[in-house]
Specification:
Blueprint: E1 2-7, H1 16-19, E2 22-29, E3 35-36, E4 42-43, E5 46-53, E6 63-67, E7 106-110, E8 125-126, E9 131-132, H2 142-155, E10 161-167, H3 169-180, E11 185-191, H4 199-214, H5 223-226, H6 231-245, H7 248-254, H8 274-286, H9 292-304, E12 325-331, H10 339-351, E13 355-361, H11 375-392
Parallel strand pairs: 6-7, 6-10, 10-11, 11-12, 12-13
Antiparallel strand pairs: 1-2, 2-5, 3-4, 5-7, 8-9
Helix pairs in contact: 2-3, 4-6, 4-9, 6-8
Length: about 400
Amino acid sequence: MSEKRELRAEPGADTGALRVNAVSATEVFGPDAPLALDCGVSLSPFTIAYQTYGKLNADKSNVVLICHALTLDQHVASRHPLTGKPGGWWPMMVGPGLPIDTDRYFVICQNVVGGCMGTTGPKDIDPKTGEPYGLSFPVITIGDMVRAQAMLLDRLGIKDIFCVIGGSMGGMQVLQWTAAYPGRVFSAIPIATAARHSAQNIAFHEVGRQAIMADPDWKSGAYLNDGTNPAKGLAVARMAAHITYLSEAALHRKFGRNLQNREKVTYGFDADFQIESYLRHQGMSFVDRFDANSYLYITRAMDYFDLAADYGGVLANAFQETKTRFCVVSFTSDWLFPTSDNRQIVHALNAAAANVSFVEIDTDKGHDAFLLDEPEMFATLKGFIASAAERRGLGR
């Protein structure tokens, strides 16, 4: 069972992403199509919410699958229904004439399983109890997210993917796709990611989870039943995580030690500094669009990701005999997923004799650089995608 709704571009839009029309859709998988999870149970029924851009060609060979990061969603190039922000979260990458050209490719972006923007997650109703799942929702993995995406593509009659692309957690999904479904992926672009989550990153996630669970309004995960919301805990989790998305150089350039709307410090605990005010704003705006339990589940999925562990502890084994063309991208100032993590992926691909190119972008914008204005990244990806399209035989 499916539902689709076209979202028209707004008049006067001035970026490629805003000029493209999005189709917002959901697909329901009933008891006859359960999602087998890595934790040993099945999820059924479940819904996948997704958006598409562009037109599917006759032989369904022009599909670009975009995998979103932890706190993002399927609104990659359309106005967000909760925040009202136009253009989505990748406005400079997706649209007519942009690296992911919607005049040429059929773009799909799905909200991951465990999410909170239409795909089944802990805030949704458990049909067995008639109440929100809360912590009774099964623990999910990156593998589960990709397995659900593959089920949707099967439902849509799409066998092969021309290109799968994503940054951060999206990059993990890209790697999982190429390992689990090597025959279905022609080209892959993992950006600012890693083949397994580091101890440091697990530690940052645990701080965020503990902040949420320490909020009295969390109610042991049953806050929706009580009509509460652990907004303070979720905001702190977001603040801590957001620091990791930036770099010291970017923080200094943007904020330094500048005071916020005052000429001297107050000798108190108000937001004296601009950086404090910025983080508080990031935290409070986040709670308006994200579910706290989803944050717990999705961060846990990232923590559990270790691609080599599924292949005898050798990462190269995950890519044996792959025919996929890879372009791996990292950023010099990304300390969350540093270049060394991305090089490990490249070394494994080289060991598997894969077709791989690698670029390290020189920038001070930190991990979030893949979401920002990085002309070198845009040029690199536009060139790689165009070259792959030529090899694929995709005419203009």
